[in-house]
Amino acid sequence: MKKAADILIDKDLRKTPCRVFVLGEFIRKGNKGISETELENRSKGKFDRVTIYRTLKTFMDADILHKVIDDDNLVKYALCKECEDDHHSHEHVHFKCTSCNTTSCLDEISIVSVDLPKGYKKIEANYLIIGTCPECK
Ligand SMILES: [Zn+2]
Ligand SMILES: [Zn+2]
Ligand SMILES: [Zn+2]
Predict the structure, then answer these.
(1) Closest listed ligand to the CA of 77
(2) pLDDT tens digits, residue range 66-77?
C-alpha cells in the first residue's frame, strides 16, 4: 500500500497537514468507508469541518476517493483502488455490517448489468448489501 505523501505527489497535490491526515486515515482503514464526522472526531479538533470537507472534495476530484452511500443515507468515502486515470469505475458491491456498522468495498465482486426500460439512462449504480461481516459472524 502506498503512503499518503506518495499518493499526493502522484496526483500533483500539494502536501498539507489535513490532506496527509485524511489520506492516512483511509489507508489505515483499507477497504472500509469513513464518514466526514468520523474524520472530524479522529482529528480531535486539529482540523475544522470545512477544511476536512474541502479535502474530501479535492480527493474526490482527483479520483483518490469515491462515495459510498449507506442504508441510512450517511455518506461515507472509501479509497479508489481499481481506478485508473482513463478508466474510472466504482461499480463494485459495498457491504454494510449491521453489527459493527462498517461499510466495506468488495472490489473483487463484479456486478451484473441491469437492463433498464426504454427511456431510462443510467448515470451511476450503487449496490449495497446489508448483513454481517467476517469479523462479526
Ligand atoms: Zn475512483
Ligand atoms: Zn462487522
Ligand atoms: Zn467502494
Answers:
(1) 3
(2) 999 877 778 999
